[in-house]
Amino acid sequence: MSSLNKNPFFSVVIPLYNKEGYIENTLKSVLNQSFIDFEIIIINDGSKDTSLKKASAINDKRITLYSIKNKGVSYARNYGIHKASAKYIALLDADDVWYSNHLEELHKSILKYPNADLFCNAYEIILNKNIIKTAIYNIINTNTITVIDNYFNASKYSDIALTSAVAFSKKTFNLIGSFNEDIKSGQDTDLWIRFALHKLIVFNPTITVIYNNIIKNSLSKNNYNQDRYKSIKNYIKEENNNPSLKKYLDINRYALAIRCKMNNEVELNKKLKKEICYKNLNFKQRILLKFSKFLLKLTIKFQQFLIDKNIYITSYS
Q1: Superfamily, domain 10-218
Q2: Which residues contact 240 (CB under 8 A, 6 or more apart)?
Q3: What secondary structure, in 3-state letters, does 2-19 show?
Q4: Interval 197-251: pLDDT, tens
Q5: What is the pTM of this model?
Q6: Percent of the chain having pLDDT more than 90?
Q7: Per-domain residue ranges for the chain?
Q8: Is 256 helix (H, G, I), strand (E, B) or coil?
Q9: Least CB-packed of 100, 116, 222, 311 within 10 Å?
């Protein structure tokens, strides 16, 4: 591999907001890549902690850092992609980590399917300090890089696309539309739906990403349930003519309804349950929708107890 070109193969875009405990390891995981033809664009989205200081302390000519007023992760990602000089964009959240082969595997996928639009690597999920599980996908061929014929069916258990595990061309991103800056939570799912409806998606089964679900679950995002609902409502017309999309969105409605129950958003919870076709949910999901907030809390505590015992049971399978 040659040294850094004027126009690198990948632009790695990292939005940064109050991730002082994670950004150093995240950046080191990028700088440790076996595929070295990339630039790193960090967008400091008005961090109030020492994130900017820690990111600035890492000296590498491939890093460019921009500081902007806090406008949310969608704006930050769009800003970084706009500044990118590479043809291909690889996204990374500031609390996730790449294995050293991540960009190399994305590069393999691009070379194998140069006409594809969204390239996805497999990933692992941190459930607690000691437990990491491999994401499970609803696809038959998990041994080779392959085209995903039906993204929504394939994402029945875990989404094929994870923000920190994908790449796409800047040209395609501009054509399909950027991250929706009006959606504060769920904007990534909104973008992947657009890719799935209109573009070709490739999946690489090699695990190259560690997704930090602990920190993301700890964030107080329940205030964004209306935004999550907005991202679902954007595809009412499409789901009426696409049964697999309808099922995918109903599973998302189920998850959102549970969040609303836990957050005492009674009206939105009722609205979501009315829109769900219950045939699209499994038995566990249908039962959980009937649970009271008290029973849901007990269920969540019991699930966490099992996770601590290295037993992972989910309502999605």
Answers
A1: Spore Coat Polysaccharide Biosynthesis Protein SpsA; Chain A (3.90.550.10)
A2: 246
A3: CCCCCCCCEEEEEEECCC
A4: 999 999 999 999 999 987 655 444 556 888 889 889 999 999 999 999 999 999 9
A5: 0.92
A6: 81
A7: 10-218, 222-308
A8: helix
A9: 311
